[in-house]
Amino acid sequence: MSNFIVSARKYRPAKFVDVVGQEHITNTLKNALKNNHLAHSFLFCGPRGVGKTTCARILAKTINCTNITPDFEACNECESCTSFNSNSSFNIHELDAASNNSVEDIRALTDQVRFAPQAGKYKIYIIDEVHMLSAAAFNAFLKTLEEPPHYAIFILATTEKHKIIPTILSRCQIFDFSRIPVDTIVTHLDAICKTEGITAESNGLHIIAQKADGGLRDALSMFDRLVSFAGKNMTYNDVLSNLNVLDHDYFFKVTDALLSQNIADALLLFDEIQRNGFDGDDFILGLGEHFRNLFVAKEIATAKLLEVSGNLKERYLAQANIAPINFLVNALRLSNECDINYRMSKNKRLTVEIALTKMCFIKNALTVSSSPNSAGEAKKK
User: Fold this and answer.
1) Helices 280-297 and 348-360: crossing angle, nearest 10°?
2) What number is the average pLDDT over the span 193-212?
């Protein structure tokens, strides 16, 4: 049996052009190479799983490539590239600051910096999770980072830029990586499915992308898990059951019940959801997200904020047409209040049921508050 390679490693980009969703970073780095404007220290920061370490490795490899392509990508054929690809490069060093965060570790690194590279132009040091360095280690690193030898380049990566001391930040060229959009992740997963011969429903891939919250590595990890579960044919229901996600259909049905003031149907649907093993907080969070999607679907200008598949988008647009804007605004407020109160409540089920009851009679509350009699009584008081 051959060794399985997870998708995050198997499809890890080897060139700038392969990096997903970070074009503003890769284009800047390629232009820096083109114009020979390379800084001596970089700081890559952003959420987990968006390509910081990958871009650091690609940049390191491209800097030392002896046969760089016309579009300033590494050739992957020269001795420097092949040695890097086989993890045997003497000029590119990687340090995990999470486990090597003491002042002695940094002093050992700065001692290495004094020696010029035996082959190639540069010695490149990639320090991952740099925010984990101790205060003493940061201070020991300052002078080397400010005035390194001409052949030394430092690429630092972190998920928590705010933990890095200002004196380090001021010595680095900072690149902020962004969360990867849902549609971009879906396109990437779809391409992997075609390569691997996997059939996957578009709605299912959208659920994976939404659950990943902008992190491609998280999306690929979930994708691998689902392939193990479903095999070569991945359905929408497979994704829902494996990732423990509520079907959108429930939220459409609950909203229909609330709009028609059918509190019995709303409560029975919530009871069914709980009997299926879902927590009340998962339901109220999902319902709040559903109301938000209906709210942005009310206007053509904001409908583009819907990060859902085509079929689902049509359902949102249809339900948004029949949902009054006052209902959606108040339902959003009530779902948010319920989410806040849920954590402190001792009777959690009742908390959700009260919220559903209030949502069901939003129209009545609005009618009473805007009636002339109620306004006159309020004025007398």
Assistant:
1) 30
2) 87
Q: Residue 284: name the closest of 323, 239, 342 by CA.
A: 342
Q: 182-243 — its CATH code?
A: 1.10.8.60
Percent helix, strand and coil across the chain, each to the nearest 5: 60, 10, 30
| Domain 248-369 -> CATH class | mainly alpha
Q: How far apart are CA 265 and CA 278, in angstroms?
A: 18
Q: What is the mean pLDDT of the chain?
A: 85
H helices present in 174-215, as ranges? 182-196, 202-212
pTM, entire model? 0.79
Q: What values do phi and psi take at 269, rounded to 5? A: -65, -40
Cα dihedral across residues 189, 45, 103, 105: positive or negative: positive
Note the pLDDT of residue 2: 57
Looking at the structure, give the CATH architecture of the domain made up of residues 7-176.
3-Layer(aba) Sandwich (3.40)
pLDDT for 375 equals 45
